[in-house]
Amino acid sequence: MRKHIAITRVEGRASRQAHADLPDGTFERELGKEGFFGPATMMYHTHPPTGWTQWQGPLRPRAYDLTKLGPLGPSPWDAGAVLANAKLKMRFWRCAEAMDHLARNADGDELVFVHRGRGDLYCDYGHLAVGQGDYLVLPRSTMWRLEPAEAMELLLIECTNGSYMLPEKGLVGGHAIFDPAMLDAPRIDDEFRAQQGERETRVVVKRQGALSTVTYPFNPLDAVGWHGDLSVVRLNVKDIRPLASHRYHLPPSAHTTFVGDRFVVCTFVPRPFETDPGAIKVPFFHNNDDYDEVIFYHDGDFFSRDNIHPGMVTWHPCGFTHGPHPKALQRMYAQAKPMTDEYAVMIDARDALEAGEAAMSVELAGYAESWRTEGPVTPPSVPKAAE
Ligand SMILES: [Fe+2]
């Protein structure tokens, strides 16, 4: 039996409700354990916790512009290494032409996110048309190939030696956020039958990071049917109906879509801003002290970040506080628009990540300095509620 060491105390000038009614002239910072599920303290500061002027040493916030990656080769195994640890491998790939082989990842489940383009997926389970904003969960060792109709850009996230699962939805029940009935599976349809035949087919298998090729004198995607509860599944980001509260800025964990082994994948999709006058309308400053946080920006206008465009990745390792850029802070209590307009994929990893070669080749210099301002930043005051 073990239990967190946790106390609840209100010390000095503090709000008793996290993320709302901050003491005048303060910025709020959450110091928290276990993602957003463990002991946590909200601290009220007179300076923005991202007001640093210099960084020395290897730890720092990092940003990578994956749109600047050069040619990446015709196989998913040519995808560029972005970030990895022993539990997950995040890679980025462009697929412009039909794959001339089947891929099979024996190291773990693969989550494919279609950033751009559309096409057809052919796999053990059949055929599925796929397009922008689709997540595809490919169970470990599924044989698959893509035939793009429009050049595709894909984020690949391997759950190394593990399986993707769905999060517990607790109080809101199983049909909230997205209904499991929204998950699509491939079909044994005419297109699938049409690609079957006696042509020689290579299967390129990855196991322990090494590639092996198995050649068949026929196409092994030759199933005529199947039954069971294991399959490739597809979910589009537009099928997600996010949790929102008009009185409370929910933590990113409310947007969890898939749970890996010692990491989670969350999706940010458009949602209404909070309307309670005292509720903050930008992400609160926080040090997510047990996790490295990665965000892949897919589409829209990223309301808490300056100078970020689709196809970029930011990585905020554990060890410092992160939070909104100074311009976004001015809208802490009053947003100009009724809704956010952003689509992003976030990975929260329990173990330290390392940058891969591809990411390092397109790193944005000066990202750590992007919170810098000319003069001091004064916190906006909590608007007085109408009498
Ligand atoms: Fe964060």
Short description:
The protein is mainly β and 387 residues long. It is 4% helix and 35% strand.
Largest sheet properties: 11 strands, mixed
What's the SSE pattern? EEEEEEEEEEHEEEEEEEEHEEH
Shape designation? elongated
| SS field, number of helical segments | 3
Separation of termini?
50 Å
Helix content: under 10%
User: What are the segments in which pLDDT stays under 50 over at least 5 consecutive residues?
Assistant: none
Bound molecules: fe (ii) ion
Strand content: 35-45%
Structural class: mainly beta
User: How many beta-strand segments?
Assistant: 20
Mean pLDDT: 95
- Provide the gyration radius in Å: 23 Å
Ordered list of secondary-structure elements with their pairings:
Layout: E1 27-32, E2 40-45, E3 62-65, E4 80-84, E5 88-95, E6 102-105, E7 108-123, E8 126-131, E9 134-138, E10 143-160, H1 190-194, E11 201-207, E12 210-216, E13 233-236, E14 256-259, E15 263-268, E16 285-288, E17 292-301, E18 312-316, H2 326-329, E19 341-349, E20 354-355, H3 357-361
Parallel strand pairs: 1-16, 6-11
Antiparallel strand pairs: 1-2, 3-18, 4-5, 4-20, 5-10, 6-10, 7-8, 7-9, 7-10, 9-13, 11-12, 14-15, 15-19, 17-18, 17-19
